[in-house]
Write a structure and sequence with these properties.
single chain, two-stranded antiparallel ribbon, 140 residues, 434 Repressor (Amino-terminal Domain), mainly alpha, 9% strand, elongated
Length: 140
């Protein structure tokens, strides 16, 4: 791709604050770095992906508020972790983490384990223990 062909379709996802680096051929035939503010198909796909993430987070939030899941499930979705990765970070088996997502089991978790989960989610341990659900915000 030539330097003047690098997409500059406008960045509807990041409002112009995020630029990507591409390498394109300059007039002398050498590869040179070129920044781009976006490519429309990519921006549309990313927007759709973030909408899906927001939907999953909101559905999990509703289930936590209904007492069907513990806050661990919400924060796992909010931080874009899956069960195997969260279990690995927590130093637990997947079945153990899955159990911790049950409200009855969650309320009996010890302070050390709650602190470990809170550190993974980058929230205060007391917020996790009290079930405070920090709203999800799309990265900018």
């Amino acid at each position: 791709m030539k330097k003047d062909e690098v997409p500059q379709d406008g960045d509807n996802l990041h409002h112009g604050t995020f630029k990507q680096l591409f390498y394109a051929v300059d007039p002398s035939g050498e590869y040179a770095p070129v920044s781009s503010i976006g490519w429309e198909p990519e921006n549309v796909a990313l927007g759709q992906a973030w909408e899906e993430v927001e939907q999953r987070v909101n559905e999990t939030r509703d289930r936590v508020l209904a007492g069907q899941l513990s806050p661990i499930a919400y924060y796992m979705e909010r931080t874009l972790l899956d069960l195997p990765l969260l279990a690995r970070k927590a130093g637990k088996f997947q079945w153990q983490v899955k159990r911790h997502m049950k409200p009855a089991v969650f309320k009996n978790l010890g302070a050390t384990l709650l602190a470990r989960y809170a550190a993974i989610f980058s929230i205060p341990a007391d917020a996790l223990q009290k079930g405070k659900l920090v709203p999800f915000k799309r990265p900018q």
